[in-house]
Structures are given as C-alpha cells and as structure tokens.
Amino acid sequence: MEDFFINTLGTSEGIFSFIILPFLIFLARIADVSINTIRIIYVLGGRKMTATILGFFESFIWLMAIRQIFEHLDNWICYVAYPAGFATGILVGMMIEERIAYGKVIVRIITRKEVYHLLAFLSARNFRYTQVKAEGPDGHENLVFTVLEREHLDELLFKLKEILPSAFYTVERVNRAAESGTIVQETTRWSIASWLKSIKRD
Which of 51, 83, 182, 183 could form a cystine bridge with 42, CB 3.0-4.6 A? Predict the structure, then answer.
C-alpha cells in the first residue's frame, strides 16, 4: 500500500506516514467494529449466513489494519488512530443498530385512564396485546402488554403520548416469542457463547 501511494500517486513519505496511513487505519477500525456490532445482532437473531459473511469481512479489515500497525511500529500517530477508530466504530455501530431496529420488544403500559383508543390502535396495526385489570397504590389501573417489531416502536410510543400522555411504560427486548407452538424469535439475551464470539482483539 505504501508503494502505491508513494510511487504510483507521487505522495510524499511524510504525508503518507503522518496523514494518509493513520486516516486509513482510523477508517478501517470504524468499519470492522461497526460490522462487529451488526454481526452480533444477526448472531442473536439466528441469521447464520449473514453473520458468517459479516464475520469474514470484519476479520479481513481488522487483519489489514493490524498489518499496517506492525509495519509502521515507529509511527506514533497510528497508535492514536487505532483506538480512536475503535471508539468511533462503537458509536457508529450503535447508530446503525438503532437504524436496523432488528428483533422484537415488549412494551408494558400502565395507566389509570381508559385504554379504548389505545387498544383500537393496536388492533388496527395488528399488534398482539393483552389487557390486565390491576390494582396499584392509588386504586384501579389498566395494564397493557404488547409485543412488536422494534421498527414499529417509535410509531407506538408516538401514538401512546398522543392518546395517554400521562401513562407509564417500559420497553425491553424479547428473549423468546412463540405463537401456536412455533418459535418466532430466539433469545436475544447475551450468552457466554455469543460473548466469546464478539471478543475483539484490541
């Protein structure tokens, strides 16, 4: 790579060593850490082929980055670019994960007000729900459970604030969902196996 920039493109050694190379290492770390985040999502979701392909590119990019580090051990800027890219990659990976919104979540809604309009909305959007009559410290309360795809969560919360602005709600990932005896989604809880697969060599 050094020969390409210096001999082919005519870049000076100083510019390559102190600007181009650290920048490329920085970008490589952002790419492989972001891919790692996405890969974990698909591993937990049971997408074996997708996770395998992502794992290949993740390892390949990491290998290219660490190779450049060892070839330029005397370049201190690379030592800054490498962890900076790793940290930035975590942020970028989290942003991508939010965009993908893969998996299911369970939303628990608690309110003392009537929930007719909320249930009508859930029914219209074909969201499965369960309503429970409950008692709290202040008397009668309505408890509504619903499980939905993460991509629809913002829509539900927006409607909830419009219909029941004072309602209390919680949101969490679904570990396992099943319907008619068929598993819809496997566990999304971190296991030791999935944790070991996600270990990064830093």
Answer: 51
In the chain, which stretches have pLDDT less than 70?
A: 1-10, 45, 101-102, 175-202
Count how many Cα atoms sit within 13 Å of the Cα of residue 196 in the half-sphere of its side chain: 3
For the stretch 10-38, pLDDT in tens is 677 778 778 888 999 999 999 999 999 88
Q: Tell me the CATH number at 146.
A: 3.30.70.120
Claim to verify: residue 10 and residue 96 sit in the same structural domain = yes
Q: Return the structure tokens found at 104.
A: 């299911």
Q: Which two tokens stand for residue 53?
A: 């392909």
In angstroms, rounded to a whole number, what is the distance separating the alpha carbons of residues 177 and 5? 53
* pLDDT score of 8: 66
Number of domains in the chain: 2
- The residue range of the domain holding 18 is 2-101
